[in-house]
Amino acid sequence: MWASLPAASDPLPTLTVIVYSHAGVPAGALDRAERETARIFADVGLTTLWRECPSTPAEILKFPQCDSHAAPPALWLRLMRSSVAARLVPDPKDPLVFGFSLRPEAGGLGDSAVVLTDRVEELAGGRGTFYAVLLGHIVAHELGHLLLADGKHSRASIMTYPWRRRELEWVSQGTMRFTPWQRQRIEQRLAKGQKAPP
Questions:
Q1: CA dihedral (73, 156, 78, 85) positive or negative
Q2: In 3-state terms, what secondary structure has residue 78?
Q3: How confident is the prediction along the chain (198 residues), in pLDDT tens digits per residue?
Q4: 124 forms bridges with which residues in the sheet?
Q5: Cα end-to-end distance, the chain, whole Å
Q6: In whole angstroms, what is the distance from residue 195 CA to residue 110 CA?
Q7: Three-state DSSP class for 21?
Q8: Which residue, 40, 28, 8, is CA-closest to 173?
Q9: Strand (E) positions, the chain?
Q10: Does the reported pTM lie above 0.70?
Q11: What are φ and ψ of residue 77, in 5° steps?
């Protein structure tokens, strides 16, 4: 793996992530996961702002920050259990699918990603603290697909696939990052303001 990348020449805009936790992820685990994702994005010069939003209509009044439309760039993240998201999963029988992103066919930036929390929990092997850290990495991976505007995977980076023992070691060491090329692509796409409408 490589060391932290030098700072971008121009600051990137703050990325707002709208989070809908339909899977009942404990608040402490969700907070830790968001901090892990933020750390990974900070390495490419991207600051993140997290907004937790209601998972049911009855909770809407408790989340005034979700009333207004988020200013771009903004991404929507849904944390779901695989049984609930089964009809949406590209390959529901593949146990190595931990999430997916919804990207427009025209090649612009997508805006929605889903992470399957029960599969991440299973991959974490019952280690609670590691589960939160791993969840943050999987979230960064899926949001990375949206920011890179492609479905491609790469070796030895946060965009790797599949995630096995070697990748889990990188996660625990905190060395899984975007490559310099991926950072450059994220910078270029955000600078152009290429964002799909919500």
A1: positive
A2: strand
A3: 444 444 455 667 788 999 988 888 999 999 999 999 999 999 988 999 999 887 666 666 666 666 555 666 788 899 998 887 666 666 656 767 788 887 655 555 568 899 999 999 999 988 878 999 999 999 999 999 989 887 788 887 999 988 889 999 999 999 999 999 999 988 887 876 644 333
A4: none
A5: 35
A6: 7
A7: strand
A8: 40
A9: 15-21, 48-53, 74-80, 99-102, 112-116
A10: yes
A11: -120, 125
**DSSP one-letter code for 108:** S
Taking each continuous run of H as one helix and of E as one strand, the counts in the chain are: 6, 5
Quick check: helix, strand or coil at residue 111?
Answer: coil
Contacts of 25 (CB under 8 A, 6+ apart): 33, 79, 117, 135
Residue with tokens 């805006």: 111
CA angle 25, 190, 90 (to 5 degrees): 45
In this structure, what token pair is assigned to residue 62?
């408790």
CATH T-level fold of 15-191: Collagenase (Catalytic Domain) (3.40.390)
Give the C-alpha distances (Å, rounded to integers) separating 129 from 126, 156, 173: 9, 23, 13
